[in-house]
UniProtKB/TrEMBL annotation:
<dbReference type="InterPro" id="IPR051678">
    <property type="entry name" value="AGP_Transferase"/>
</dbReference>
<dbReference type="InterPro" id="IPR002575">
    <property type="entry name" value="Aminoglycoside_PTrfase"/>
</dbReference>
<dbReference type="Pfam" id="PF01636">
    <property type="entry name" value="APH"/>
</dbReference>
<feature type="domain" description="Aminoglycoside phosphotransferase">
    <location>
        <begin position="14"/>
        <end position="218"/>
    </location>
</feature>
<dbReference type="InterPro" id="IPR011009">
    <property type="entry name" value="Kinase-like_dom_sf"/>
</dbReference>
<protein>
    <submittedName>
        <fullName>Phosphotransferase</fullName>
    </submittedName>
</protein>
């Protein structure tokens, strides 16, 4: 049983239910078996979803065989392209019927608003430290103009597309993706949000995952702009900044996010060699 437990419980419940129904004939997602938004019997609206067999891709990538990981990376890339084939009239956030309730089109100005909102006026400085935040802000200002040419910003974005939310069925010879889970953060926007999230922890120079993932994404019709990897990393910087924009974050999460942010800035020039290989 799946409970929605945020302030906008019913909206998120309806939104995820409609997304799952829209996707069930396109990719592997749980089927909605029963739904109840009345809150009559339980405090929250709820969905009963079909059981999906599998282990998290994150777990499998730690222990799986090289050839299986390459095959799965290709399947993940193809699956993501199918998700991004779904378009909406505009970019922004959904209402419960998947209409665009709040229009958002990202450019350098609102990118900086998001970053500054987390690291200057938000809690980011508390968790990352003043010097790290200043370094990130300087870097962001230097490269923000890259987001003025993002390309399309009105496709379905999962917004949490990473190995934790992808299940792998290992029961048969030749592992396959059995489900993409957790659609409550979905919105209409740039496909590079999902690519940045998926590649957040990937090694850039010797990755076994990136070549088959991106090649399959393109083969299935996914479109990449010229500076796709650097743009995807900038979009993921928004997500990372938001993760530390909370009054209480513990100690492990800010440490990991700081490491990822600094790693991105150190590797920035290396991204160019990777992205030019695919466009």
């Amino acid at each position: 049983m799946y409970f929605v437990s945020t302030v906008s419980k019913i909206l998120l419940y309806e939104m995820e239910r409609n997304i799952l129904k829209m996707l069930e004939e396109r990719i592997q997602v749980p089927k909605v078996l029963y739904s109840d938004s009345s809150c009559a019997g339980l405090q929250y609206p709820f969905l009963i979803l079909s059981w999906m067999e599998g282990v998290q891709l994150s777990e499998y990538m730690q222990n799986g065989q090289h050839q299986d990981i390459a095959s799965l990376a290709a399947e993940v890339g193809g699956t993501l392209a199918k998700i991004h084939h779904i378009h909406f009239p505009d970019g922004g956030f959904f209402d419960d019927s998947l209409n665009i309730e709040e229009t958002v089109k990202l450019d350098k100005n609102n990118f900086m608003e998001f970053i500054e909102g987390s690291l200057v006026t938000g809690y980011g400085r508390k968790h990352l430290g003043k010097d790290t935040c200043e370094e990130i802000l300087t870097f962001s200002r230097e490269h923000a103009s890259m987001l003025d040419c993002l390309g399309e910003q009105n496709c379905l974005v999962h917004s949490d597309f990473n190995p934790l939310n992808i299940l792998v069925d290992t029961r048969k010879k030749g592992c396959t993706i059995s489900a993409v889970l957790d659609w409550e953060y979905a919105f209409s926007g740039s496909p590079l949000f999902d690519i940045g999230n998926m590649l957040r922890y990937e090694r850039i120079e010797d990755s076994d995952f990136i070549p088959p993932f991106i090649s399959a994404y393109q083969k299935e019709g996914g479109i990449l702009p010229k500076e796709w990897l650097q743009q995807a990393k900038l979009l993921d910087l928004i997500a990372l900044s938001e993760l530390v924009n909370k009054e209480v974050c513990g100690t492990a999460k800010p440490k990991d996010i700081k490491r990822l942010m600094l790693k991105m800035m150190i590797e920035w020039e290396k991204y160019d060699a990777v992205q030019t290989s695919y466009v």
